[in-house]
Amino acid sequence: MNLRTEFLEAMSRGATFVTVATTDGEGGRYGVTISSLTPVSADGEQPSLLGCIHHLSPAVPAILKNRAFCANLLAEDQEALSDRFAGRGAPGDHSGRFDATDWTPGPNGQPMIAGATAAFECRLATALLWETHYIIVGRVTHVRRSDNPAALLYGQRAYRRAVGLKGEP
Ligand SMILES: Cc1cc2nc3c(=O)[nH]c(=O)nc-3n(C[C@H](O)[C@H](O)[C@H](O)COP(=O)(O)O)c2cc1C
User: Fold this and answer.
1) I need a surface site. Which of 13, 16, 94, 146 has the fewest CB within 10 A?
2) 12, 16, 32, 78: which to mutate for ligand 1, most atoms within 8 A of CB?
C-alpha cells in the first residue's frame, strides 16, 4: 500500500460532519459538499472557521471574488442533498444543484440551505493555496440553527448518524 492510500484509509476512520459551502455574488452562485470544515476560534474579533476546497472547483474563484460564503451543516436526513452538491449525478452543474434545493439568501446574501442543522454565514478572511486545495478562512457574521440538532456524518466511506454510547438519541 502506498503512502497516499494508507493516508486515505486511515483518514476514512474519522467521521466528520458534512457541510455544503455555498457562495453568491458577482463571482456567481456555486455550492460544493465538503467534509473539511473546521472551527478555528470562537474568541477572535469574530468567530472563525476554515474549509479546504480543491483548486479546480469553480466554487473557489467564486468565493475569492464574492469575498463571502455560507457553511451549511447538513442534517441527518440530507444525504441526497449532500450527493447533489458533490456532483454525483450531474457533475459541474452548479445552477442545477440550487434549482433542486430549497434555499434563501442570508443577511449578507449567501445561500442558506433550508433544513440544514446549522448555517454559518461568513466573510472571506483569507485563502491559501496549499498544493491541490485552497484553505479558505471565514469570519462568521451570522449563525442560524434549525430545530433538528442531528447532523449528517460521513465516515468509513458512508453516511452515518451519531448515536450516544449510553443510549442517547
Ligand atoms: C462527503 C463528501 C465530502 C467531501 N469533502 C470535500 C472537501 O472537503 N473538499 C473538496 O474539495 N471536495 C470534497 N468533496 C468532493 C466535492 O463535493 C466534489 O468534488 C465537487 O462538488 C465536484 O464538483 P465541482 O468540481 O463542480 O465543484 C466531498 C464529497 C463528499 C461526498
Assistant:
1) 13
2) 32
Query: Which residue has a Cα nearest atom 18 of ligand 1?
Result: 86
What pTM does this model have? 0.97
Q: Which CATH class is domain 3-160?
A: mainly beta
Q: Which of 36, 52, 20, 12 is nearest to 157 (CA)?
A: 12
Q: Is the torsion defined by CA of 67, 54, 29, 70 positive or negative?
A: negative
Among 12, 19, 34, residue to substitute to test ligand 1 (most atoms within 8 Å of Cβ): 34
CA 59 to ligand 1: nearest atom: 27
Q: Which pLDDT band holds residue 151 (cuts at 50, 70, 90)?
A: very high
